[in-house]
Each structure stands twice: as structure tokens, then as C-alpha cells.
From TrEMBL:
It is a single-pass membrane protein. HAMAP family: MltG. Its EC number is 4.2.2.29. This is Endolytic murein transglycosylase. One of its GO terms (molecular function) is lytic endotransglycosylase activity.
Length: 372
């Protein structure tokens, strides 16, 4: 009897140990899964954190911030000064960036920086000792302007001939060089013979500081493209996910910019354009007609809608062939993140408000109600 009992205890012990081992394995497995998830989340968060730290603090800012770099300052001291003054996002990342790019030998002095500067621009200033208490020229380029209008502003503010500016930005050989230099945002799409001006839409709306009495046209153009690159780069993945090319995204954003005057309107207008594209309706946006006409006028007449142009969205069943103006970051963001709506129509009243409709009948009611 005692042997049977002993055998039974032995089997019970084996079963207990087996269950215990199974439980331990499950716990270890769960711990490993949790650790893997934590590491993955940490890795992604770390990547996004570093990516953000390498970007300008505020690409659209024109604030001037003076900082003093003392003689004999180490890279750590300089990084701390820049971070404390809001010129860079993270001093540690800045120091690592300097180390990886073998940068150093910075000059002491009083500098004027803006939060819109890239790390490379900051480094270049520190290396050359460009102590810029005040820019020679500070020029603001508003949103929603054509290259022709931008050329007019520079001609007014600088010793630059408008026709010379337009000649440079339409020079095919120069444009091809720019496509090579800015390959992430410029493509051969802008060389299409039906495109009126290759760089239309790509000269970013912002405030630009120039430290020479007579900057060259090329330096002006490339300063503007640098700013466009800075603004567009964080959105490149979203643009790809939307199955847009950069050219299409910039074109879309230019339409939103011309039709809307605030962030809420931009998001709604973007939604209308998406809905129209999905239902294969023409976008029918008046600013494209005005651009196709190539002349300034206050209103679009019915006869104007017949203009034969790849820009005229009353004629083409898609986006126009290219941008019709430069854009704001808000319009680009609305292009990629429209609100969810069923609107297919909209109109502007005399007060600047926009009224939306889901059906053509509703649209006609809005027209009778808000348009005199």
C-alpha cells in the first residue's frame, strides 16, 4: 500500500512540476513580449524625437533673437546657449550632430538668429563668424502669390529688375540644376511645356533676411527653396501615404490657399475638393480660371469658364497641371488632413464667409440667399 501511495505522490509531483514549468514559461514569454513592445515603442519614440530635434524650432517664424557666444565657448556651452534662447530644440542632439558632421571652430561674438533657421544654417553662421546684428534687407512674401507677383516685390525692395528675375526663374538650364539640388521636392513635372512658370508654388511665403546690399537673384530663389524644403520635408511621408506626388500636393495646397482665408475654411475646402475628385467631378475653382487667363480681374465671367487651359478646373477633370500660387503650411496641412464631410459645393459671400452644400439644389439656395 505504501508503494502505491509513493508512486501516486511521484506522479502528482511530476504533474505539479510540469504545470509550474508551463506557468513559468508563460510568464517569461509574456515578459519578453512586453519588453519587445517597450523596446519597439522606445525605438520609434526615439527616432521621432531625434527627427524633430533636427528640424527648425519654428519654420515660419521671423522673430530675431540675439545671443552672445563668449570667447572660448565649447560646443556644449554653445548648444546650451542656443537651446536656452529657443534657437534649437535640443542641445544634446545638436552636439551629436556637430560630432557626426565633424563641425567645430566656431567664432565668438553677438549673433542674431531666428527659430526658422536649420541646424546647417546656424552652424555656417557660427563657423564664419557672421555677426548679423541686423539684416541689410528684410522682405516678407505673403501667401497666395504668383512668381510674377513675388518678382514684383523683390523689384520694389531691391535693386533687381523684375524681367531679369522672371528670366532666371524660367531658365531651363537653371531649373534643371535646381531639380538636381532639391530633388526631394522638385521633379521633372515642373518642366512640362504647358507649365507657365516652373517654380510656381515652390517659392515659399515667409520673411527673408538678406545680409548683402545686392543679393543675386539665384541666392534669393535658393533661399526661398530652402524654406520650402524645410516646410515640406516633415510631410513627405504623409504625401506618399495619400498617393500624391510632391507636385500634386503643392498644386492642391495652392488651390486651398487661394480659396480660403483661415484654417477652418482650408480644412473644409480641402474636403470639398477631395469629395469632387472621388466622384470624378471637376473641381471648378475660380482662381484656376483667373490663373489660366493670365490677367488680373475681380470676377470670373461665364465666358471665362471656357478658356482652354490645363489650369482651368472647369475643363480638366482633375487637379490643374501645376500650382497657381505659393502656399502656407496651414494649407498644406489641410490638403493632407481634410475634415470628414459630404460637401460638394461652396460659395463665398460678400463678407468673406463660405457656405457649403451637399447637393446642387442646396447650392442654388445658398446662391439665392447669400449672393446679391
Amino acid at each position: 500500500m505504501s508503494k502505491k501511495k509513493s508512486g501516486g505522490n511521484f506522479r502528482d509531483d511530476l504533474v505539479a512540476r510540469s504545470n509550474e514549468a508551463r506557468t513559468v514559461r508563460k510568464i517569461v514569454f509574456m515578459i519578453l513580449i512586453v519588453l519587445i513592445i517597450i523596446l519597439a515603442i522606445g525605438g520609434i519614440s526615439g527616432f521621432l524625437y531625434v527627427k524633430s530635434a533636427l528640424e527648425p524650432v519654428d519654420p515660419s517664424s521671423d522673430e530675431s533673437i540675439k545671443v552672445e557666444i563668449p570667447i572660448g565657448s565649447s560646443s556644449t556651452t554653445i548648444a546650451d546657449i542656443l537651446e536656452e534662447n529657443g534657437i534649437i530644440k535640443n542641445g544634446l542632439i545638436f552636439r551629436l550632430y556637430l560630432k557626426l558632421n565633424n563641425e567645430g571652430d566656431f567664432q565668438a561674438g553677438e549673433y542674431t538668429f531666428t527659430p526658422a533657421l536649420t541646424l546647417d544654417e546656424i552652424i555656417q553662421s557660427l563657423k564664419t563668424g557672421k555677426v548679423v546684428a541686423e539684416p541689410v534687407h528684410r522682405i516678407t512674401i505673403p501667401e497666395g502669390l504668383t512668381v510674377d507677383q513675388i518678382a514684383g516685390i523683390y523689384a520694389e525692395k531691391l535693386k533687381i529688375n523684375k524681367e531679369d528675375f522672371l528670366k532666371v526663374v524660367n531658365d531651363k538650364a537653371y531649373i534643371e540644376k535646381l531639380i538636381d539640388k532639391y530633388s526631394t521636392i522638385l521633379s521633372d513635372d515642373i518642366l512640362n511645356e504647358q507649365i507657365r512658370t516652373p517654380l510656381e508654388g515652390y517659392l515659399y511665403a515667409s520673411t527673408y533676411d538678406f545680409y548683402e546690399e545686392e543679393p543675386t537673384i539665384e541666392s534669393i530663389v535658393e533661399a526661398m527653396l530652402d524654406r520650402t524644403l524645410t516646410v515640406l520635408t516633415p510631410y513627405l511621408e504623409e504625401i506618399k501615404e495619400k498617393e500624391f506626388t510632391v507636385h500634386e500636393a503643392v498644386t492642391f495646397a495652392s488651390l486651398v490657399e487661394k480659396e480660403a482665408s483661415n484654417e477652418e475654411q482650408r480644412n473644409e475646402i480641402s474636403s470639398v475638393f477631395y469629395n469632387r475628385l472621388e466622384t470624378e467631378m471637376p473641381l471648378q475653382t475660380d482662381p484656376t480660371v483667373l490663373y489660366a487667363l493670365g490677367e488680373h480681374q475681380e470676377k470670373v465671367l461665364y465666358k471665362d469658364l471656357e478658356v482652354d487651359s490645363p489650369y482651368n478646373t472647369y475643363k480638366v477633370q482633375s487637379l490643374p497641371i501645376g500650382p497657381i500660387a505659393n502656399f502656407s503650411e496651414s494649407s498644406l496641412n489641410a490638403t493632407l488632413n481634410p475634415v470628414d464631410s459630404d460637401y460638394l459645393y461652396f460659395l463665398h459671400d460678400s463678407e468673406g464667409d463660405i457656405h457649403y452644400a451637399e447637393t446642387y439644389d442646396e447650392h442654388l439656395e445658398n446662391r439665392d440667399k447669400y449672393i446679391n
